[in-house]
Amino acid sequence: MDLGLNGKVAVVSGGSSGIGLAITRDLVREGATVSIAGRDAGRLAKARDEIAADLGAEVGTRVLDLRDTGAARAWVDDTAAEHGAVNIVVSNAGGPPAGPTGAFGPDGYRDAVDLGMISHIGFVQAALPHLQRAGWGRILIVASETIRDIIPKYALSAIARSGLAAYAKTLVHELGPGDVTVNVLAPGYTATDALLSGLDGDVEAETVRIAEQADIPLGRVARPEEVAAAGTFLLSARASFVTGTVQVVDGGRSLGM
Questions:
Q1: How far is CA 215 from CA 1, 12, 16, 208, 254, in A?
Q2: CATH 3.40.50.720 is held by the domain 9-187+224-246
Q3: SS3 state at 193
Q4: Where along the chain do the CATH 3.40.50.720 domains lie?
Q5: Could you say which of 14, 187, 191, 215 has the lowest number of CB atoms within 10 Å?
Q6: Does this model's pTM top 0.85?
Q7: Angle at 82 between CA 77 and CA 87, to 5 degrees
Q8: CA-CA distances (angstroms) from residue 114 to 65, 96, 122, 142, 217?
């Protein structure tokens, strides 16, 4: 299936591992030019080298923290200057720590909102003029299933990220007619480094245990590439009439309509 991404230029934050890296690989396979950013220079270099070896393509890299809006804007501007445009924005950042509402004071909430909402908005705002100038754009904000279905032990995630759905839906109406779409990807339990690093013993058995405890009907956690597949479709030309949505990828766990 041709997704219509050949020749498009993409910036992917958090692109050195997990879901961000899986989306990057999909975009490269589809012929897009991609620049990835993250906080760890070593992980970025590793991702760049693996993509070059596996897919025969070069990706750009930029070391930055998405909370640094000025650095994010400079990255987008530099990418547009180098490649002539920016068409695709994948805003992906780490999540806040787990815990119930009472486990955190006001500063903890401020930090969570800064990372889980404000950093995404700042990045999108930096890139939006380039997408509008190009006349074709796709914005994908990677959040969490906690937007749609509250998980009490991940209180900060739900509180900090829920505003992203409102932002995306509001932005769609402000953009009006054209070919720039905005969607939110809301993954559930996924076998990323963040999840796997906290496991002891047999990893496969532990992820099955997590799935059982979380009551995931499919009986396992997601693979990053499975979540990425949904995200990549939302970034494609074929998804031209899909905008303002929250796409949950959770193996059927959530019961909300």
A1: 33, 31, 30, 10, 9
A2: yes
A3: helix
A4: 9-187+224-246
A5: 215
A6: yes
A7: 65
A8: 12, 10, 10, 15, 33
